[in-house]
Design a protein that fits this description.
With 270 residues, the protein is an alpha/beta fold. 33% of the residues lie in helices and 20% in strands. Helix 4 crosses helix 8. The structure holds 2'-monophosphoadenosine-5'-diphosphate. The site of 2'-monophosphoadenosine-5'-diphosphate (ATR) has 15 residues, from helix 5.
Length: 270
């Protein structure tokens, strides 16, 4: 019988996950379907239960459900627990749900293996202290950077996260306006400001010719952050397309026991 998978979110029509997972299935010769399923927040519990009843084997979870799902699964992986968010659910034959989070490993794979950006013993900066930042901090600290600084408009949120992840490695909090005096090897934009076409008031002094810049957001043209970074002299600038494909490959591995080759899909991305 064909196994069924999907991604749940709201809105979901824009999701690239069905295209990516269908290509993975074709490549790995796996008999499965993968669909985008729109679930409004107020219907999350009932519609999730209906999907389980219908025999679905696994689900990806995207905005706005990543945090709420944590309380609806029976078991959580260590990395999902650390992130406080789930992007991958596996459902066993008894209908029990295990939540995992592949966002962090998706990002570190894209950075280190696809883009050749070194993380070990480097100074890293994350701009933003919301859900996206929580998902990536544990995996970035796992790569043993020299330091990981989190800067946020609301500085208390950056301080809270630095405290929460302190036992995993050298993680610090900083205000945007104090960044100008510091030097970084990699800057990751994890704010959602780009969704409204904005670049927050980051000090341009953080951009040096050697710094790598990575936006977790992605778009068919330059994102506002990528445009801003290039304008201020950054040469090594990337959008989050590779992370999207790599986190999907990690989900596929969890579900099917095979890690697809992401190169053919990444080759067709902007
Ligand atoms: P996500 O799940 O995408 O991380 P989130 O949890 O709502 O979404 O977090 C959004 C992040 O983008 C926060 O760090 C937010 O800063 P605040 O904590 O100060 O709200 C940041 N952000 C969004 N719009 C921004 C803007 N215009 N300027 C600066 N930071 C912004």
């Amino acid at each position: 019988m064909t196994d069924r998978y999907g991604v749940i979110g709201h809105p979901i029509a824009h999701s690239k996950s069905p295209v990516i997972h269908r290509q993975f299935a074709e490549q790995a010769r796996q008999d499965l379907t993968y669909d985008a399923i729109d679930i409004a927040p107020e219907h999350l519990t009932t519609e999730l239960n209906a999907l389980i009843e219908s025999g679905v084997k696994g689900l990806n979870v995207t905005v706005p459900h990543k945090n709420a799902i944590v309380d609806l699964v029976d078991d959580l992986s260590k990395r999902a627990k650390l992130a406080g968010a789930v992007n991958t659910i596996s459902i066993n034959s008894k209908g029990a749900l295990r939540g995992d989070n592949t966002d962090g490993v998706g990002l570190t794979r894209d950075l280190t293996e696809n883009l050749g950006i070194k993380l070990a013993r480097r100074q890293l900066l994350i701009l933003g202290a919301g859900g996206a930042t929580c998902g990536i901090v544990p995996a970035l600290l796992g790569e043993r950077p020299e330091g990981l600084t989190i800067a946020n408009r609301t500085s208390e949120k950056a301080e809270d996260l630095a405290e929460r992840f302190a036992e995993l490695g050298p993680v610090y909090a900083c205000r945007f306006d104090a960044l100008a005096d510091l030097e970084f090897d990699l800057i990751i934009n994890a704010t959602s400001a780009g969704l409204s076409g904005k670049v927050p008031p980051f000090p341009a002094a953080i951009i040096t010719p050697d710094v790598a810049c990575y936006d977790l957001s992605y778009s068919m043209s330059d994102t506002p952050f990528c445009h801003w970074a290039r304008k201020h002299g950054a040469a090594d600038v990337h959008q989050g397309w590779g992370m999207l494909v790599e986190q999907a490959a990690e989900s596929f591995l969890i579900w099917r026991g095979v890690r697809p080759d992401t190169a053919p899909i990444r080759a067709h991305l902007p």
